[in-house]
Design goal:
There is one protein chain. With 113 residues, the chain is an alpha+beta fold. The chain has three helices and four strands; from the N terminus they run H-H-H-E-E-E-E. The protein has a four-stranded antiparallel β-sheet. Strand 3 and strand 4 form a beta hairpin. The longest helix is centred in the N-terminal third of the chain and has 23 residues. The N and C termini lie far apart (67 Å).
Length: 113
C-alpha cells in the first residue's frame, strides 16, 4: 500500500516539475530588451543584410535603428514574440523576434538578398 502511494506521489511530482520546466524554457522580454538584443548581435544582422554591419570592425554601424512591437499574449509589459524592423538609411529588414529563456532569442522571417 505504501509503495503504491509513494510511486503515485513521485510520478505526480515528476509530471508537475516537467510542466514547469517546459514553461520556463520560454522567455518573456520587454520591448527595450528585444531591441538591445538585436543591436548586440552583429553576426545575426550581417546574415540578414550585410549593410547593417561595418566590414572592417564587424560591429553594427552607427545610426542603425531597431523598432519592435510586442505581439500577444502580454504579461506585465513583456512579450514572447515581437515584430521588429531594422533600418539603416534606405535599407529596411522585417523580422520576428522570439524570446527564449536566459536572455536568449531567435530571429525569423524572410532574409533580404
Amino acid at each position: 500500500m505504501r509503495g503504491a502511494l509513494l510511486a503515485t506521489l513521485v510520478t505526480s511530482l515528476i509530471v508537475a516539475n516537467a510542466a514547469s520546466a517546459s514553461e520556463s524554457a520560454v522567455g518573456w522580454h520587454t520591448k527595450r530588451q528585444a531591441e538591445r538584443n538585436i543591436l548586440g548581435a552583429p553576426k545575426a544582422l550581417r546574415r540578414w543584410n550585410p549593410v547593417f554591419v561595418n566590414r572592417v570592425t564587424h560591429l553594427v554601424k552607427r545610426n542603425v535603428v531597431v523598432g519592435c512591437e510586442g505581439l500577444a499574449p502580454r504579461h506585465a509589459d513583456t512579450f514572447r514574440r515581437f515584430s521588429c524592423v531594422v533600418r539603416y538609411r534606405t535599407t529596411t529588414a522585417r523580422m520576428i523576434y522570439l524570446a527564449q529563456a536566459k536572455n536568449g532569442f531567435e530571429l525569423r522571417g524572410r532574409h533580404a538578398p
